[in-house]
Amino acid sequence: MTNTFTAVVHKEGGLYVAECPEVGTASQGETLEEAVLNLKEATEVYLEEFPIQQTYRPILTTFEVEAHA
């Protein structure tokens, strides 16, 4: 069975950090592609040990916050 998961990626210093909100896994890489590939591998290993019964799709949106100096 194949499941589709979300990768949320941000840059920290010189690395890309990728997180999967559905499972809670995270990984990193020097490129965006490497970070997502590493996240996929980490998620596969995690799911071998802790299978999930049902997945949900997170709702992704944005919001603005006014910065006060």
* H-E string: EEEH
CATH architectural group: 2-Layer Sandwich
- Cα-atom radius of gyration: 14 Å
Number of helices: 1
CATH class: Alpha Beta
Structural class: alpha+beta
Strand order, biggest sheet? 1-2-3
Amount of helix: 25-40%
Unreliable residue runs: none
Residue-averaged pLDDT: 93
How many domains is the backbone divided into? 1
Q: Report the β-strand fraction as a percent range.
A: 15-25%
Roughly how many Å apart are the termini? Answer: 51 Å
How many beta-strand segments? Answer: 3
Give a summary of the structure in a few sentences.
The chain is of the alpha+beta class and 69 residues long. The chain has 1 helix and 3 strands, in the order E-E-E-H.
In words, what does this structure look like?
This protein is of the alpha+beta class and 69 residues long. The chain has a single domain, classed as Double Stranded RNA Binding Domain (2-Layer Sandwich). The protein is 26% helix and 23% strand. The chain contains 1 helix and 3 strands; from the N terminus they run E-E-E-H. The protein has a 3-stranded antiparallel beta sheet with strand order 1-2-3, with helices on one face. A hairpin with a 2-residue loop joins strand 1 and strand 2. The radius of gyration is 14 Å and the shape is flat. The mean pLDDT is 93.
Topology:
Layout: E1 8-12, E2 15-20, E3 25-29, H1 32-49
Antiparallel strand pairs: 1-2, 2-3
Using brief descriptors, characterize the structure shown.
Double Stranded RNA Binding Domain, 69 residues, 26% helix, single chain, alpha+beta, three-stranded antiparallel β-sheet
